[in-house]
Design a protein that fits this description.
The chain is elongated and about 65 Å long. It has about 280 residues and is an alpha/beta fold. Helix content is about 35%, strand content about 25%. Strand 10, helix 9 and strand 11 form a beta-alpha-beta unit. Helix 7 packs parallel to helix 8. It folds into 2 domains: about 170 residues, Rossmann fold (3-Layer(aba) Sandwich); about 90 residues, STAS domain (Transcription Regulator spoIIAA, 2-Layer Sandwich), CATH 3.30.750.24.
Length: about 280
């Protein structure tokens, strides 16, 4: 797992930002907004528990002309319940469509890209669709950031979310900032250089939700092939394999799921349950 990084925000990255106090929050906020405005991008802040006026005040205290940026339309602040949590709850497909709309609207206004911050604390509450957030975080590297001029930081406040929730969701990003987070029992991240996922740790009864998210990504992947890199997986049980192959079987006219460097436990399962073979292609390198 990559270590958290600091310094100037990197264009085009989808990063997790973990913090546990107001000073850290304000520092990350100011660094991101200042850089986005200076680069001539449209900057958006999606709040969950933070009053938008507090966001403006923190930016002003940091020496940023936030009021001026809002007045000219370069900076906007909204709350999640009015945007991607509006209606029946969180829908990854709808949110991916909203990013396209945001970039199109920014371009029509003369901005060559969008920089966005989203507070993710709602994921730890009883919000409809919250169980699909991990699937969404894993999908958007290739479905959104690989094709749109978009830079985004997902804010994870440890005071509002359980450590387990933070650890799994923050791990689903290619780059990380702020406080370090522990590696959960099983964690997923998008592959940096090709469509697919990297899985690390052990898959068993306690990691069913994480495996289900991986299967959802595999099933819905709009690519010629779905791939799982399991080189860092120590153990994967039969139930987890059934969920993953079920996701692969759900691909319309898709090829088998390519599993790269599986652990010995999975190889034994493939021998015991040959019915999984039709949905799996094992690659040893």
């Amino acid at each position: 797992m990559a270590e958290p990084s600091e310094g100037e925000p990197v264009e085009g990255c989808h990063s997790s930002v973990v913090f546990s106090d107001d000073r850290q929050w304000a520092g990350h906020l100011a660094a991101f907004v200042r850089s986005g405005l200076a680069r001539g991008r449209r900057v958006q802040y999606f709040a969950d528990t933070t009053d938008p006026e507090r966001v403006l005040a923190a930016l002003t205290d940091a020496g940023i002309d936030a009021a001026g940026a809002v007045a000219r339309g370069q900076l906007s602040l909204s709350v999640a319940t009015q945007t991607y949590l509006a209606g029946s709850g969180f829908d990854p497909d709808a949110m991916i469509g909203l990013w396209q709309e945001a970039v199109d609207e920014a371009g029509a206004s003369g901005y060559p890209g969008v920089w966005a911050i989203g507070e993710m604390s709602w994921a730890n509450r009883d919000v409809a669709g919250a169980d699909r957030l991990l699937e969404y975080e894993l999908r958007i590297h290739h479905e959104v950031f690989a094709r749109l001029p978009l830079t985004a930081w997902c804010f994870y406040d440890r005071r509002l979310m359980s450590d387990a929730c933070v650890d799994v969701l923050a791990s689903a990003h290619l780059t990380h900032r702020g406080e370090s987070h522990a590696a959960p029992a099983l964690w997923l991240a998008p592959l940096a250089d090709r469509p697919g996922l990297r899985m690390s740790g052990s898959a068993g009864y306690d990691t069913r939700d994480t495996v289900a998210a991986a299967a959802a990504v595999v099933s819905g992947a709009q690519t010629p092939r779905a791939e799982l890199d399991l080189a860092a997986v120590r153990h994967l049980d039969a139930a987890s394999l059934a969920v993953l192959t079920g996701g692969a079987a759900g691909r319309p006219d898709g090829p088998p799921l390519r599993i790269r460097q599986p652990p010995p436990s999975l190889r034994r399962l493939l021998q015991l349950f040959p019915e999984f073979d039709a949905s799996v292609e094992v690659v040893d390198r």
